[in-house]
Design brief:
The chain is about 85% helix and about 0% strand. It contains five helices and no strands.
């Protein structure tokens, strides 16, 4: 009896790079959010006149919120598809960043000069 094994061709390198990039960028954005929060702590302490230990609660609250949302968002990804949820999240992030740049363009240009 002859066995039939499907002939699976390897993906071209460009497709592999594109797939790797599309998965690496959201991971970068996730860790970037934590980094931005940590970098802003001294400024928050100065602006609000609080101690550094007091504003560290900002990072703890941020990480707690992210951690508690993971299970629910994972389930939502199972229901509506992970790809759709990933693209919606990236679109939301991109839209918020574009809005932020639009609203603070003068400050950004001033900082660059």
């Amino acid at each position: 009896m002859k066995s039939t094994v499907p002939n699976i061709l390897p993906a071209p390198p460009s497709a592999l790079r594109g797939g790797l990039t599309s998965l690496a960028l959201p991971t970068l954005l996730s860790s970037l959010g934590s980094s931005i929060t940590n970098v802003s702590l001294p400024t928050l302490a100065q602006v609000f006149g609080a101690s550094f230990q007091d504003v560290q609660w900002v990072v703890i609250a941020y990480l707690l919120a992210i951690t508690t949302l993971i299970v629910g968002v994972g389930r939502l990804g199972d229901i509506i598809s992970r790809r759709t949820l990933l693209l919606a999240g990236l679109s939301l992030f991109r839209g918020l960043r574009a809005n932020d740049v639009k609203n603070h363009a003068k400050e950004i240009i001033h900082c660059l000069n």
